[in-house]
Specification:
The complex is a heterodimer of chains A (91) and B (359). Chain A has 91 residues and is an alpha+beta fold. Chain A is 44% helix and 26% strand. In chain A, strand 2 and strand 3 form a beta hairpin. The model of chain A has no long low-confidence stretch (mean pLDDT 89). Chain B has 359 residues and is α+β, with helices and mostly antiparallel strands. Chain B has helices at residues 2-14, 35-46, 85-99, 122-126, 146-152, 159-164, 180-193, 196-208, 236-247, 260-266, 271-275, 345-352, and strands at 53-61, 64-70, 80-81, 217-218, 232-234, 251-252, 255-256, 285-286, 291-292, 311-315, 319-324, 329-336. In chain B, the strands form 3 sheets. Chain B has a 7-stranded antiparallel β-sheet. The chains are: A alpha+beta (91), B alpha+beta (359). The A-B interface holds A 15-16, 18-19, 21-22, 25-26, 29, 33-34, 37-41, 44, 48, 51-52, 83-89 and B 73, 78-81, 138-139, 142-143, 145, 148-149, 151-154, 156, 204, 216-222, 231, 233, 336, 338.
């Protein structure tokens, strides 16, 4: 199991940064919309917003209505823009 | 007496049948299904043994809410993620824009994106037949996914531009290939046609508000283009209003929201699909941003327990709105089904058994 995890990490690290970006970007966008548009609980949103692999860490700022996430040196950020606008992936 | 009969006949002839419309809330009525049918339906949708999860499910019949159930923590009155059901709503907006003379379906995309193939039209995009290179894969093949690239990586700031720069793989209009990119390109064409404030309010002013939708959120990219492919949020009860609008032939009270011609166009199979070789084509059929249940010679109907007239707005992870005109009936189902285990036909089987099954 450990070997598989190590191998997976190496593969992910050396693969295009596109995949790592997809992991963090899709997470922050979907997580932000889940919490601020659908208004579901954080725990549930974390589960719903994880697709390929989980992010290493994330920060949900409820006062600024934003989400940061990191995964293998890649960072993404999404922000809630308003009731009609929902969330937008910023970086 | 003769005058009365003539007057009576005149009234019958001129009164068109229309279904009751919901006001602020859907009026409720008793479901015309047996206890056994409902038990079968709930087993299909809500049994904990399944590898999928249903958030909310409702049925509207003859303009009334006859069944509604949501899993704990969800509600049919709360906005939920619709994924590609957004595409169908985006298609309706294009129809409204056409009706208002803002655009024409046979217009060339080249007028807006000079690098586009000269024969590529708005109709081709509505039929998912642009012929542009595209890979519509998600988490099962993330390394080769134009959708992920467009939504999250290279194209997220201007999704339509990402799509417009794809190379031409087939001549426009000849090959069906489902593509989230085509809807975002369509929305950007509408955006280029009208002023920024008009575009910003267009879905609300022309569609949502007139039919009583109050829960809409539609996310945009950095160019302020609505992400028509994926990111409309509506409550299931509000989504059903769009189904009711179609059952009502595009009219809401006295107002034509979307024309009967557009509805007919939307529910006619894309020419590109008809022309494809049997081995090349999918086992389902597509109109103009609506999924259909047309019988295909080689495989029959995609949903054998539903009538051929069934039409659907479908989204990733099992989101669906399914409309059966001859039953005056709308189903809305939202759910989580990452691995595609949910079989929509089981809903029709539970309620209609063999009624629509072809021998």
């Amino acid at each position: 199991m450990k070997k598989i995890l190590c191998l997976m990490t190496i593969v992910l690290l050396t693969s295009s940064c596109g995949l790592r970006k997809a992991v963090t970007s899709s997470f922050v966008k979907e997580f932000c919309s889940c919490v601020f548009v659908e208004q579901l609980p954080e725990g549930q949103c974390k589960e719903f917003s994880t697709y390929v692999v989980p992010v290493s860490s994330y920060v949900l700022d409820k006062s600024k209505k934003s989400v940061f996430a990191t995964f293998l040196f890649e960072t993404s950020f999404a922000e809630f823009k308003g009731e009609r606008f929902g969330c937008r992936l910023e970086q | 007496m003769k005058t009365l009969i003539i007057l009576f006949s005149f009234l019958i002839c001129t009164t068109t049948y229309s279904l009751p419309l919901p006001k602020e809330k859907w009026e409720s009525a008793t479901a015309p299904f047996s206890k056994e049918q409902i038990t079968n339906l709930e087993n299909v949708l809500f049994s904990k043994e399944h590898k999928y999860f249903t958030k909310s499910f409702l049925i509207i019949k003859d303009g009334k809410l006859i069944y509604e159930k949501s899993a704990e923590g969800f509600s049919s009155k709360q906005p939920q993620k619709l994924w590609s059901i957004s595409k169908t709503v985006a298609g309706i907006l294009i129809g409204i824009a056409e009706q208002q003379g803002l655009l024409k379906v046979d217009e060339a995309i080249k007028n807006y994106y000079p690098n586009a193939n000269e024969f590529l039209t708005i109709a081709n995009l509505l039929h998912m037949s642009s012929g542009l290179t595209w890979s519509e894969t998600y988490e099962n093949n993330p390394l080769d996914s134009d959708v992920l690239n467009m939504l999250f990586i290279k194209g997220h700031k201007n999704m339509a531009s990402y799509v417009a720069h794809k190379s031409q793989e087939y001549p426009p209009g000849e090959h069906f290939k489902y593509s989230s990119g085509e809807t975002n390109l369509l929305m950007s064409i509408l955006q280029k046609k009208i002023s920024r404030p008009d575009y910003e309010s267009f879905p609300w002013k022309k569609l949502f508000t007139p039919i009583g939708i109050t829960t809409a959120t539609w996310e945009r990219d950095h160019s302020d283009n609505f992400i028509g492919s994926s990111y409309l949020y509506l409550s299931p009860e509000d989504l059903a209003r769009i189904g009711q609008l179609f059952l009502n032939k595009g009219k809401w009270e006295d107002k034509i929201i979307v024309s009967q011609e557009w509805i007919n166009f939307s529910l006619t199979e894309a020419p590109s699909q008809k022309n494809m070789e049997p081995k090349e084509r999918r086992d389902d059929s597509f109109g103009a941003h609506w999924w259909l249940n047309k019988r295909i010679d080689t495989v029959g109907k995609k949903h054998p327990h539903a009538p051929e007239s069934l039409y659907m707005a479908l989204g990733h992870h099992g989101q669906s709105m399914m409309i059966i005109p001859e039953e005056n009936l709308i189903f809305v189902r939202t759910g989580i089904d990452k691995d595609g285990h949910f079989d929509r036909d089981q809903i029709f089987k539970a309620l209609y058994a063999d009624k629509y099954l072809e021998k």
